[in-house]
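Expect chain and fold; thus:
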Amino acid sequence: MEKPALEVQLKTLPNNPGVYQYFDKNGKILYVGKAKNLKKRVSSYFNKKHDSHRTGVMVKKIHEIRHIVVESETDALLLENNLIKKHQPRFNVMLKDDKTYPWICIKNERFPRVFPTRKLIKDGSEYYGPFTSFKTVNTLLDLIKGLYKLRTCNYDLAEDKIRDGKYKICLEYHLGNCEGPCEGFQSEEEYNRNIEAIRQIVKGNFKDSLQRFRNQMKEHAEKMEFEDAQRIKNKIDVLENYQSKSTVVNPKINNVDVYSVVSDEGYGYVNFLQLSHGAIIRSHTIEMKKKLDESDRELLELAIVEIRQRFNSNSKEIYVPFKVDVGEDIRITVPKLGDKKKIVDLSVRNAKYFRQERFKQMKIVDPDRHVNRVMAQMKEDLRLSQEPRHIECFDNSNIQGTNPVAACVVFKNAKPSKKDYRKFNIKTVEGPDDFASMEEVVFRRYKRLLNEGEELPQLIIVDGGKGQLSSGVKALETLGLRGKIAIIGIAKRLEEIFYPGDPIPLYLDKKSETLKIIQQLRNEAHRFGITFHRNKRSKTALNTELEEIAGIGEKTVVELLKHFRSLKRVKEASRDDLAEVIGSAKAAIIHNHYHQE
């Protein structure tokens, strides 16, 4: 049977919560989404012009819409997440994290062993985790082994086998790491008390173990067993030290998940902190690749459902930086101040650090992706119509109007292209007039590029405020390029970005990559221009001093400097040395000038 037209499919959608799926003409799944109201949400894709190019492309490919009605939004969230994982649709957010994580297992056996594992076996054993790295697991197990003596052998320590003397104590007993339950040297009741204490430590509750050790220390001290008391005190110190490193919030905060998100044009980074008894017992950040123009809220909602499933979280409350919709059973808290706000800020900081690390790694292993991300970010930050792959920056240099020059530096794909740098001697301006100088060099630069058929930049930056910017705009107008090339000015004092015809400047985040690249351009233009200016000024000063000597012309000066390399050596040269270069008559004039006395 032929599929009905999309208009018909849209009209027959229900107004209930549910999950929708888009398919192309070949029956391949394009996208999975959730909605409070299926009809409204799905219709919105076809009723408006999309800002995101990728969304527009997807909508054009949609040939069939399928939907699944569910009882509540919570069910919709879970079903959406499962379908995305199952089908991996082309246009859905991609979770770039498919590792298996380690757990701590308390084995289901008499005198249970405690060990790390990546496999969950349904044999009645207890599994705590998953943990985000083996480093965390090993740190925790080292702590446990330092506090409690546990067996590491895999013997079946059944009561009758121990009674019949089937096993003998091993080296671990003699090293003091095990109490020897295999020969009945430790009772099952005492061993299980240790296991219960370990359960609490793994959950992040150190209170019971600390109290138990303090009581033991007191008992040993009262019996004058000071060595034993000191041994217990060392355990207390180890436990308190570990606890102090873990505890970052109010101990009253218990069984809470904390989530936060930071994102850029192409990716979102969601951090998850799990809190128990005021301690962070888990921290993990996932990277999510955007396929459409997903908002931070959409990314966070998807990540919360995924992370809670992956890490088996059953906490009834979560802290987030803004309101999210993840079902009715979870209490959402958006803290504004105090300990709760601090923990959300910590989560945001973790997400930002993770993002920075990914950027550093990306520069090394995938430079193209790094450049694409930076370009997309600059386009958004500077409100440009296209990515600024080719940027040119101008700077004027003069001292009290002498030797006015200008420099143009070129960046391609956010990197200096030094072969394209250009320097200009100001020809039409008398005196120190920065505005007129800027107009001249911008005009000359782009008149030449137009005449030679060279590619034009997507962005021009002029070093200076509204005055210099207006001069640059005037030059572009004369050439008929106004509106064809974006042009902005950057004022030095407050790093203000000015746009043509807009008196109110744009202030970029001081830590943003966009501002850093603009500053790099400005500083490079200044360096290049000032070097050219100094060289020209020095050369002029040298030439002027020698040319002031009566009877000495420009050609003679050039010959002298070419041979002696500096004015100082010319002054110190003998008459014979000078004569070898410029002849005896001129040599006599210069020698007499510097040795009159």
Remarks:
- The first strand starts at residue 18 and ends at 23.
- Residues 134 and 356 are 23 Å apart (CA to CA).
- The first helix runs from residue 6 to 11.
